[in-house]
């Protein structure tokens, strides 16, 4: 059994929908004091309302994680209210664009949030995590990039692979202060964005998973809860793939039977 996270302070970037909102829900249920961030006031207010409707409390902050001034304010405001024990770098964008026609601006947009945002948030969090009983950083990466590829997502795949390169070197520096940093690599997770692609797409993606279903946000949140725990204190610079076995088959034939 894991040590309860009651009264631990958790900041989740990109916490207004999908995996981020699932993380907020899971940490709040575990008794943590939760703060979420997002770029849209309307989406942030809607997410906080959804949590309140479920009897869960969280604070909300407007921030673009790729902007240093936003990040500095976000971390200072969060830590001033509750301190900081766990930072979940979850904010990410995933527009699709063919490599042949992808613009430099489209490339930069993805790196701005997915890579630069991780760097800025972790850097700004360090003074506060050092004061925690045990500091934790958890990155939401992906199987796309580090393990697999997907047409139209070369910029996204590059950003998710870059997250892990950043994590491994950062782990060495953070270890001096007993702060761990690890990454969860989701496969296909059933979120609002995925639902918009239609039932046919969802059925095809589920058929490619050995466990014959798409992941849930709770599946990802459970992995994050473990990385955030006191018991995970000797694990750092590591990745955990949560994909129902999606990356295992060599071919469609391997899924037969």
UniProtKB/TrEMBL annotation:
Positions of the Ketoreductase domain: 8-187
> So what EC number does this one have?
1.1.1.100
GO BP annotations listed: fatty acid elongation
Superkingdom of origin organism: Bacteria
Q: Which InterPro entries match?
A: KR_dom, NAD(P)-bd_dom_sf, SDR_fam
Q: Which family does it belong to?
A: Belongs to the short-chain dehydrogenases/reductases (SDR) family.
UniProt protein name: 3-oxoacyl-ACP reductase FabG
């Amino acid at each position: 059994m894991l040590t309860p996270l009651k009264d631990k302070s958790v900041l989740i970037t990109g916490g207004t929908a999908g995996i981020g909102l699932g993380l907020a829900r899971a940490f709040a249920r575990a008794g943590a004091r939760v703060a979420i961030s997002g770029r849209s006031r309307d989406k942030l207010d809607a997410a906080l309302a959804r949590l309140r409707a479920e009897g869960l409390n969280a604070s909300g902050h407007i921030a673009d994680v790729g902007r240093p001034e936003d990040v500095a304010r976000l971390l200072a405001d969060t830590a001033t209210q509750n301190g900081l024990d766990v930072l979940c770098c979850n904010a990410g964008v995933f527009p699709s664009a063919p490599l042949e026609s992808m613009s430099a601006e489209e490339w930069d947009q993805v790196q701005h949030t997915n890579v630069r945002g991780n760097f800025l948030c972790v850097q700004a969090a360090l003074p506060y995590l050092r004061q925690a009983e045990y500091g934790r950083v958890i990155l939401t990466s992906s199987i796309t990039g580090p393990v697999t590829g997907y047409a139209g997502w070369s910029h996204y795949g590059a950003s998710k692979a870059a997250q892990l390169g950043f994590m491994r070197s950062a782990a060495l520096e953070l270890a001096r202060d007993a702060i761990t940093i690890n990454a969860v690599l989701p496969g296909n997770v059933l979120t609002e964005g995925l639902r918009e692609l239609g039932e046919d797409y969802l059925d095809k993606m589920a058929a490619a998973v050995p466990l014959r279903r798409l992941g849930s946000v709770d599946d990802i949140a459970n992995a994050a809860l473990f990385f955030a725990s006191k018991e995970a204190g000797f694990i750092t610079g590591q990745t955990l793939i949560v994909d129902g076995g999606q990356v295992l088959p060599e071919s469609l034939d391997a899924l037969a039977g």
